[in-house]
């Protein structure tokens, strides 16, 4: 069921923080893209590894609608392009996901992070999709909320912050190309 996002009730204060995790697993050291691309990928093993993506992405109907839906996303991309997007997600932001922002309450105690849409400086309002996929309308001028747009920033942590190995990435690429 579609919702009209222009009629969300507006919030003029940030009652609590909603921040996006910077890491989704242990830290790993990854090889360069050509080295990973030369590995043999296994889509079955990649299907098991895609679970780490469900925290922020949907794959078809499974997962969380925060980042782009990954079903069909890899079909028109090369292995190297997909690896680049997973290893260095801030290098190329997907359309519609290119307005990351951080909001701070007037007193600085609360921070809300997410993806902005329907920003209106004149009206003093914006819609922000927060971690988990919920959309909130914020009346930033009325509440004295500071809006910081983050240039060339993806909320997606790099693959090295998700506990993924070279082989995990190559397997994940094969799985994403198969769906």
Secondary-structure blueprint:
Elements: E1 10-11, H1 33-38, H2 43-49, E2 58-59, E3 62-63, H3 79-87, E4 100-104, E5 111-120, E6 125-130, E7 135-138, H4 140-143, E8 146-149, H5 166-178
Parallel strand pairs: 1-7
Antiparallel strand pairs: 2-3, 4-5, 4-8, 5-6, 6-7
Helix pairs in contact: 2-5, 3-5
Summarize this, please?
This protein has two domains: 5-17 and 96-149, SH3 type barrels (Roll); 33-93 and 156-178, Cytochrome Bc1 Complex, Chain D, domain 2, CATH 1.10.760.10. Helices cover 22% and strands 20% of the residues. The protein is built from five helices and eight strands, in the order E-H-H-E-E-H-E-E-E-E-H-E-H.
List segments where confidence is low: pLDDT < 50 over at least 5 consecutive residues: none
CATH architecture of the largest domain: Orthogonal Bundle
- N→C terminal distance: 25 Å
What oligomeric state best describes the polypeptide chains here?
Answer: single chain
Q: What is the tally of helical segments?
A: 5
CATH top level of the largest domain is Mainly Alpha
User: What gross morphology would you assign?
Assistant: elongated
Classify the fold: give the CATH topology of the largest domain: Cytochrome Bc1 Complex, Chain D, domain 2
CATH superfamily of the largest domain: Cytochrome c-like domain
> For the report, how would you describe the main beta sheet?
6 strands, mixed
Mean pLDDT: 93
Helical content band: 10-25%
Query: What portion of residues belong to β-strands?
Result: 15-25%
């Amino acid at each position: 069921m579609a919702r009209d996002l222009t009629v969300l009730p507006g919030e003029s204060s940030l009652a609590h923080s909603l921040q996006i995790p910077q890491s989704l697993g242990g830290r790993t050291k990854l090889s360069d893209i050509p080295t990973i691309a030369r590995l043999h990928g296994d889509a079955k093993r990649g299907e098991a590894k895609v679970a780490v993506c469900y925290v922020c992405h949907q794959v078809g109907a499974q997962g969380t609608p925060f980042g782009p839906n990954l079903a069909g996303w890899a079909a028109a991309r090369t292995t190297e392009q997909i690896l680049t997007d997973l290893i260095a997600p801030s290098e190329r932001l997907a359309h519609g996901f290119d307005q990351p922002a951080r909001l701070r309450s007037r007193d600085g105690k609360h921070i809300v992070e997410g993806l902005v849409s329907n920003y209106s400086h004149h009206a003093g309002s914006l819609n922000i999709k927060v971690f988990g996929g919920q959309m909130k309308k914020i009346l930033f001028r009325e509440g004295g909320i500071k809006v910081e747009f983050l240039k060339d920033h993806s909320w997606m942590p790099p693959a090295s912050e998700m506990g993924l190995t070279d082989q995990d990435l190559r397997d994940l690429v094969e799985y994403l190309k198969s769906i």
